[in-house]
Amino acid sequence: MDTSASMTLHAGPEWPLLTERLGIRPAAPGDAEATWAYRRLPESSRWVTSAWKDYESYARSFRDPARLGERLVIESEGRVIGEVVVRLNDAWTQSEVSKVGAGVEAELGWSLDPGFSGRGLATEAIARVLRLCFTDLGLHRVHARCFADNQPSWRLMERLGMRRESHLVAAALHRDDGWLDGFEYAMLADEWRERQR
What we know:
Blueprint: H1 3-11, E1 17-18, E2 23-26, H2 32-39, H3 42-45, H4 55-61, H5 65-69, E3 71-76, E4 79-89, E5 105-112, H6 121-136, E6 141-147, H7 151-159, E7 163-174, E8 178-188, H8 189-196
Parallel strand pairs: 5-6
Antiparallel strand pairs: 1-2, 2-3, 3-4, 4-5, 6-8, 7-8
Domain N-acetyltransferase: 22-190
Pfam families: Acetyltransf_3
InterPro entries: Acyl_CoA_acyltransferase, GNAT_dom, N-acetyltransferase
């Protein structure tokens, strides 16, 4: 993703985004230490795409402008308890309409401190991020992938009304478990608006 798309994410709404119990804001380099506290835990790193072995490598990802530009942090009572990645993408288009399809999709990913799981906080946060995507950013489509064995993730997507679009057979390579099945979920702006009525 290019830097201009990252800047669009952070320039979109007025920060922080608020929910009943949470604040969501753009990540900053200083958030590396707070997120490392739970990202280093095996139960937290099991399903995420990158599991860093040491803090310095992890902290470098918070200094990379492209990665930082798509990363948001979730706060509860002033404490960082999770992250959400909003990776803006172009839609798959024919060349004649490629400008219309530029930057109209987002891929989501998230991680929550295991000490805060089971309280509906991830659902609350991702619901607010969907609102960001479809209202503030005016996106057409949002999608997310997960390993089929990661039930908390795909159940969260289903609770939010995301539609399972594909069951990918042995298409997701896990660092410890080898080739696993994966799911892809998505939601269109029209579907999101219909759920809000």
